[in-house]
From TrEMBL:
Gene3D superfamilies: LysM domain, Metalloproteases ('zincins'), catalytic domain. One of its GO terms (molecular function) is metal ion binding. Residues 444-491 form the LysM domain. This is Putative Zn-dependent protease. It comes from Stakelama pacifica. Keywords: Hydrolase, Metal-binding, Metalloprotease, Protease, Signal, Zinc. InterPro entries: LysM (IPR018392), LysM_dom_sf (IPR036779), Mito/Outer_Membr_Metalloprot (IPR051156), Peptidase_M48 (IPR001915). Residues 1-17 form the signal peptide. GO terms for cellular component: membrane. GO terms for biological process: proteolysis involved in protein catabolic process. Its cofactor is Zn(2+).
Amino acid sequence: MSFARILMGCAAPVALAGCAAGGLTGTAPVTPGQAAPISASERQQGSQARTGILNEYNGAYTKGPTSYVTRVGQRIATQSGLSSNPDAFTVTILDSPVDNAFATPGGYVYVTRGLLALMNDEAELAAVLGHEVAHVAARHSQKRQQAAQRNSIFGALGQVLAGAVLGDSGFGQLLGRAAGTGSQLATLGYSRSQESQADQLGVDYLKTAGYDTDALASMLTSLSDQQQLDQRISGNTRSVPAWASTHPESGQRVSAALAEAQQLGGTDQPRDRDAYLSAINGLLYGDDPDNGVIDGRDFLHPKLGIAFTIPQGAQMQNSAQAVTVSGQNMQAQFGMGQYSGDLANYVQKVLQSLGGDGANLPAAQIQRTTINGFPTAYTQTRANTQSGAVDVSVFAYEASNSGAYHFVVLTPAGQGLGAAQGMVQSFRKLSSAQAAKIKPKYVRIVTVKSGDTASSIAQRMAFDDYKLERFNVLNGIPDGATLRTGDKVKIVTY
């Protein structure tokens, strides 16, 4: 059972006078390429965060483009001044389908395979990693330690999606305790000025490394297009990924990145598209069936043989710890735990895991029923958070003598299960035939032949809907654009 669409964050369209000019509110001047060297304490800090990051993002993806991504990441990271030695930087692909990248103090740089699939050339990869390294070079994390205390990976999600219900991050903090939070360095909520500074430094790194300086702008455009497509597919146009939630809209950021590139020059430097596409050919795309897959509103886990359906308009994300569900006036988490054979005791343990400084969970009466053949125990109680009172519901299902599954549902006080009523009732067994149909998807690189169009190639995409739209966004192709014979493009197939 990867979530947290934190990504790089959007930056304010400030005047592009150069990062060393000191014109960015809340940031100290940083001369490109002259960052203070990595200290021993920073290396220790990054090393300590690494275990939690790997755990929460399904570990490292060690197939395919690993050495290639490492080489590109080290090349761009050395432009920062943190170290001139490429080996001072540890670059890791995370085995997660979400669009995410970040760096932590100490020379640790991370990018998910989900984001790699969206990139279209080596320059875009360098742009993303350069932006993240720039946060480290400018010591932004040290300036945001208070934010780190409340923005664990799940806490950040809660702050964005559940904070709208209750006004601050208390709602997300309560539920975050159930998942086991960590990796705080990876999910800092950077300020607008810090994001802008990282963009500016990142564009400078592109030039000194010999990459097209427009690459950051084109990558940001793809991210914006992907966000809009995700909203169309989910039917939830109000949803906003965490990287975009507290910053200006992406069009402003693209304009700022383009202006910075024009000022610095280097817009005609290489992008190395063919090398990049060759490296990611065969990359695992989307969810790994071994960890469960998201199919529209359904979560399906062929290995465990279980499934459930989320409410209309809600969104879910899958991580190593849990599946998170966010909807209007509702946030939920689905997970599993060790089971001793006493379902009531299991529910009590889940409730205990939610308690802490931000919540006061009184004892609650546990009731029993059967849902789709599963013995079920459930309870509801009222919790006090920093934001006010919330209703907390726990539904636990007995799968066998050795395992149990559960939902934790949070809603504003007085709403009970709210929109989650149908979800907790939908927990069900997945038949062998249904499980057998769930197969992994991969990125494949194909060459455009004479007579091919975007529409004809898109029919080969391993999706039931939005084939053309998915193909265009995946390849950064504007709607209605004509493909040229001999061009290489990405498709997603089984």
